[in-house]
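Aim 2 progress update. The chain analyzed this quarter is reproduced below.
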Amino acid sequence: MFGVVESMKNKTDDRNYKKRFEKGFKKLCSSKSTYQVWSDCMALFAITLANQSILPMTEDKQFKEIWDKREKEYLRIINSYSKNEQKLFPQMFALIVEELEERPNQDLLGELYMMLQIHNKNAGQFFTPYNVCEVMSKLTFDRKELGKTVHKKGYANVYDLTCGAGATLISASEQCKEMFKKYNYQNHVYFVGQDVDITCVYMCYIQLALHGLAGYVIHGNTLMKPEPELPKDLENIYFTPIWFSDVWAMRRLFHNQDILGRKLKHGCSGN
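Predicted structure tokens:
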């Protein structure tokens, strides 16, 4: 009997991905601050996803330069840790993937950030609890208007100008999922986030990518460069993998848009 109970406890512990992540994270904090380790984790995870996403586009010179620069940054960060510490990063990333596969309706990275007490109290940096974001999305999400836009254009977009870890965008995606029960909402709605904090950009990007959402996250000051005025330089934009899917490539081509979804003045998109 005790053996069965112990076995069940071990299985429960194995599935407690957040605790296992915390355990691995603390092992990395012996010689660096918790904020530095967290920033490094998010950078490594985001660069892994982002570079894999744009890899098919690297025949283009601009994408190749971006890929090379991010790869160089990845190597700089990972080489600042010992060989044993380096092994922890893919394990921790796998735990994030597993947790979101089992419980996607959450702001996992925002919760971990607060749980590990990394938030900057002096800068007033706190993430809105996910349940509050859910309520806000339900109260403000205009399903009728979204439906009209999708019916007219074939797609719509959701934009968060101060995205943080992406909780608002994730909760909005859940509203889209409920709305488009007969269709795959991932093929009809794309999500755009923007933040001045690069670590927040990484966090939001990782979560959008792992939720299978089309879109991108911009590193930039919303007051100086709002989303409608997207920069020509793609270096500060992190595209999710599904943004390059055939469905979204065809949508941009049909609407005569470039890789960002900007209207082209002449000709057609090369996607």
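The mean pLDDT is 85. The first strand starts at residue 156 and ends at 160. These observations will guide the mutagenesis experiments scheduled for the next reporting period.
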